[in-house]
Amino acid sequence: MAKVDLVDVSIRDGNQSLWGATGLRTAQMLEIAAKLDRAGFRAIDFTSSSHMAVAVRYFRDNPWERIRRMRAVMPRTPLQFITTGLRFIAWQQADPDFMRIVYRRLQANGIRRMVMLDPMHDADAVLEASRIVRQEGDAEVMAALTFTLSDVHDDAFYAGFAAKLAASPDIDLFYIKDPGGLLSPERARTLAPAIKAVIGDKALEIHSHCTIGFGPMASLSAAQTGAISAVHVGIGPLGDGSSLPEAGRMIANLQEAGHNVPVDPSLLGDVSDYWWRLAKAEGLEPGAPQDFDASFLRHQIAGGVMTTTKRQLQELGLLHRLPEVIAETEQVRSELGQPIMVTPFPQMVMSQALFNVIGTGRYAQVSDQVIRYVMGKFGRPTRPIDPTVEAAILGRGPAKEIAAEEDFPSLADLRKRFGAGMDDEEFLLRAVMPGEQVDAMLAGGPSLARYNPEAVPMFALLRALAERPAARDIIIERPGLRVALHAGDSVA
Hints:
By secondary structure, the protein is an alpha/beta fold. The chain is built from 22 helices and ten strands. The chain has helices at 10-19, 26-38, 49-59, 63-73, 96-109, 123-136, 155-166, 185-199, 215-224, 247-256, 265-282, 296-299, 303-315, 322-335, 345-358, 368-374, 387-394, 397-404, 411-418, 424-432, 435-444, 456-466, and strands spanning 5-8, 43-48, 79-83, 111-116, 140-146, 173-178, 203-208, 230-233, 473-478, 481-486. Strand 6 (173-178), helix 8 and strand 7 form a beta-alpha-beta unit. Helix 8 packs across helix 9 (215-224).
């Protein structure tokens, strides 16, 4: 039987797609890492620069420490980092010398697979970033072929882009990345062989979201062509929905089709059980199989962005206006030249649609990032921007300031600002994040080492009691456990 590996996306993409932007804490990842390492996955989709920023901003977790500790517990399975090339946390393209330090520290700490994704499919940009990665470590480099629907992005387009990269010794393998879940089974059967024909012996994987129900069938159809070496999946509650196909069901389907999937079913069951217990303890909604929704073929909104926008509207008491925002997203995307809906573009497009719907008028409020996009600072759109919209955006007052702003500072200037002797890892964070957030992270010390889902309700109770002035000393005892909270203590 033909072997098909699995890549687990639960920790990063699955979590971001289903459970929003705040992500998982380091202790929650470490608790299951050893079993995940032994389960037999080809790689673990582990982090990104945005994911690292979330660790600092929301949890005061040191993202460099997180990589080190996870790598120590997971020596067998490569940890994967996804990047849009010469960018780290900030939206601006960074100084290549600055990115050289980023890639060096990522690999030194334990990243063993780097995904290079350029939303504009700029081959030169991918190759430049890949060369730097190769010079700074030994991680394998995987190039992303980001799927979208348009009259430009046909099979020949993707094969041509892959062919440009395949000749480079700095690109080890490829994957079809379908963030919107738009890849149909029929299209998968033609696209995967077309790409494989030009990349030769280099492996091709598939990463297809389940947002409109296509993901499992598209992944299976691609595997059946013989062109695919690995399928990306989410485990238990972190599969399906707007995430990737659920691992257990995907394995069963692949085996039914005659494939050998080298994943330990017992360990996979333990990992799935852990994520289910965590989801219940934290009140997190699990992914579920999705009905087909043809509207996504038009607006192409990625699952994580949809989840975040729903939450924003709900907090504003405006969830009933979601259909208007979705319709406006389609219009804004068309006016902005049909950018592929992959980070950072879906965030820009849908945020602009939200402003247009709930604000005082269309394009009455425009983010700085949309202005930078219209100015060409993110590359060239697939189609020209609507001239009326372009004039409205560039005629705004902030546009003049943004046009005059300096590019990302040089490495020399940043070193001068923060001191040449500053540790590289702290320096990289301070260069692109608010100083007070980095200060708070450093003051917080090492992340917690353990997490027990069953203990979450107890700590919630302790926090509630600790907020009551009358609760001076609280002691909980049972065989093998004693928790004491005294006045002035904090509850972790």
